[in-house]
Amino acid sequence: MERSIQIAVVILNWNGKNFLEKFLPLVVRHSEGLADVVVVDNASSDNSVSFVRENYPLIRLIQNDENGGFAKGYNDGLKQVEADYYVLLNSDVEVSEGWIEPIIQKMETDPSIGACQPKIRSFEESEKFEYAGASGGFIDAYGYPFCRGRIFDVLETDSGQYEDACEIFWATGACLFVRAELYHSLGGLDEDFFAHMEEIDFCWRLKNSGFKLMVIPESTVYHVGGGSLPKSSPMKTYLNFRNNLFLLVKNLPAKRLGWVLFIRYFLDVFAGISFLVKGKRGDAWAVCRAQWHFCCAFSHCMKKRKVLIQKEVSQVYQGSIVFDHFLKGADTFSKLKTGKWS
User: Fold this and answer.
1) 164 secondary structure, DSSP code
2) Cα(284)–Cα(289) distance, rounded to whole angstroms?
3) Are the C-beta atoms of 317 and 139 separated by less than 8 Å?
4) What is the pLDDT of residues 202-219, one digit of tens each?
5) I need a surface site. Which of 58, 69, 105, 221 has the fewest CB within 10 A?
6) Assigned CATH topology for domain 7-223
7) Is-above-0.85 flag for pTM?
8) Going by C-beta distance under 8 Å and a sequence separation of 6 or more, which residues neighbour residue 305?
9) Do 114 and 213 contact (CB within 8 A), yes or no?
10) What are phi and psi of 12, to 5 degrees?
11) Other CB atoms closer than 10 Å to residue 291's CB: what's the count?
């Protein structure tokens, strides 16, 4: 890195004192001399603030007045952080030595890259990819996100099959490297999402604005996942289904919007029935709530759409990941048909 670069690793915390105790020491150690570490606290009630103050007095601590969720929490905090690059880092991520340099070097050599992620492996099962990002995020023709290394709930073992740095559709919010200027010029994360999929929406807006997203597997971190909402939470199901519809309305090209939403309605009905069959009544009700609240917010989403750019973009799987996975048995990224990519 020839020029002087300001990098800020920004950890959003909400009642995550146990994660800060466990993972903050390595973040500090492996960021020293490269990046400033900032903790943004979302009105925690678990002594997180006092822990940081007492044990890390040199770390900058920003206290938000309320828990506005992932999106608002970061937006409020980053307004107070000056840097060339932000690294949005979950509090439940273990970083490794050399995790920053490969990504910043890549972004410095290619100004068309708007954001990047490292390879994300599971903290609990370190030989496997982690759900939220794996080795790069993608999306299918109907808006369902998936990853190199993760199709729905199937996590692949990392045996080096996805070690190439490549262009992706979305980069995970668990460890998101982004140009600070772009973050602010695009309005940051959409606060209506509260939490979940706001990073996919942001990455889609980056792509619609002509920027690339990359995964750099030379950098690897380990993610616990489910720190704020456990994977089995109906609230997580509700946010994922509702927010996925939000991002479709905001970002899909006009010629695709109507029929995609039409098909998605029936796919979501299928998902709700599937939850019922499995005895997951809370999740089935969450899908119904998501559809209802999406309908109530539709006109609001359309107003947002009018001031945004929509265009055909790359790294979209033009098939249905639902059909290919559940009916044709495609349980790994490498089994998806190569001819279906845009």
Assistant:
1) S
2) 9
3) yes
4) 999 999 999 999 999 999
5) 58
6) Spore Coat Polysaccharide Biosynthesis Protein SpsA; Chain A (3.90.550)
7) yes
8) 249, 250
9) yes
10) -90, 125
11) 18
